[in-house]
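Lab notebook, bench 4. Still working through the backlog of constructs that have no structural model yet. Next entry is a single chain of 517 residues. Request: give me the structure tokens for it.
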Amino acid sequence: MRERRLSARISWWSVVWCAIVLFVCTVLYTMSFHARTLQSYKRVLALEMAVLLGQGVDKLAIQGSASDWDRYAAVTDSAVRLANDRGDVLFEIGSPSFSITRMDAIIVKLSQQPFFANHSSSSLSNPVVWNDTYVWHDKTGTHHVIIASRRVKFLNGTSGTLQLFSLTDALMQETWRTMAWLAAIDVVVLALFALGMRWLTRRGLRPLKLLIDGIQEVEWRQSARIKLSNVPQEIESLQQSINQLLDRIDDGVKEQNRFIADASHELRTPLAIIAGHANLLRRWGHNNVRVWEPAVRNINSEVDRLQKLVNQLLVLARLEELPPRHVEGLTSAQLRELFQRLREDARVLRPDLDIVVRVHLTKNARAYIDADDLHQVLVVLMDNALRHTTDGYVELAAHGDEGMVRFTVTDTGEGIPEEVVAHVFDRFYRADGARKTESRGAGLGLAICKRLVESYQGRIYLRTKLGRGTTVIIRLPAQECPSPVFQSTDELVPKRYKKEKPRDDTGTSTDADATKH
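Model written out:
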């Protein structure tokens, strides 16, 4: 039904436009035909005037109304009038189309026009003056006349005006007849054009109708995707784009549903704990200090957890709308200072681990990221590395890498299962092993890290192997390095790691890995 309405609308407007074009062409052709035919009339009258002037105007004035001239007027259907400057008519012959009375009325009307009045008193060098706008009406209908006027000079030194009159009724009839024929042809052409457009639009819109039916089938019948065959390439490309859009919508809906489920789960647990302790206080905590103190402590702990979760959600929402970041960047000296603080904090939390720090950047290189944002990202990564490493070392490194700065956080912990790697940066995602630990995080830390890094046009990913540790890699834009001189921070590395560099999950050294990536 929609396809039919669209086809009818396209056909209607196409026919209207075609009608306008045909009307304009018809009018222009008719005007051109009228102008050409009128010029033919003028050439005939000019020839007749040349014949009269060749006979001599003095001889014409003397002859008066000779029968020869009556025969001439009857054959040519032209009226002739010769008058002097005083208005005396010297020669006048009426044609079958003109009576003397009609000719005199025309002369009176023409004498009132400024153009012809000026012409009557102008010099004899003026050419023929034409007038083809005189129209009158009588019982027989509407009549049009063309008039040719020219100044003449007599032998006695006086001057006058010679005028020829000829009807153009046949010209007007032929013009209207031509327009009628053209209008009839236009109607036939429009009818054929309308039928052709109707057929073409229905045939051309058939693939679009199939596409619309496919979309409706997906919408109403919950079909998987649009599957059309034997359609034009444009419709096939549109079909692929719509299917890709549907895939993204489905992914977004699934992500939203999972987010709601995970958020509900994370909120339900502390709320249940708070409700349980509040109920405990209401029943037995009025005068019992042994009940009151742990209940209040646990309520405060869960409230802090809820506040942290809400703050993380707000941070994620803010980062989703964050435009591309533009900062001054961090030099190698600033990175060394930041890494040193992180190393000292990590030693306080895990004194049993070796914390290795490396910075290898050119002297003037800058990593384009804000110091606070980088600190937030590295704190989360270091915290994960410390919590999942029982013995060995944790390495924090920064390397220049072909116009980029590559940060790595490497540990020798238990590693991450292969099926978990693809989801570690998802919101609220925690592996089963992580859920069994004492950590009470909501699973938003790595998601925030990913969004922060991407806000600086960077990339974050990891490589891992069970039982051999994990390496998280961050690549950020950097300024072109003007000098090949490197600033090393080997003084921050324990002596027993200077000879043998830490190895990542693939068995290659971290520096080699930086060159590789």
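Notes after review: Residues 121-125, 433-439, 481-517 have pLDDT under 50 and may be disordered. The radius of gyration is 51 Å. Flag for follow-up if needed.
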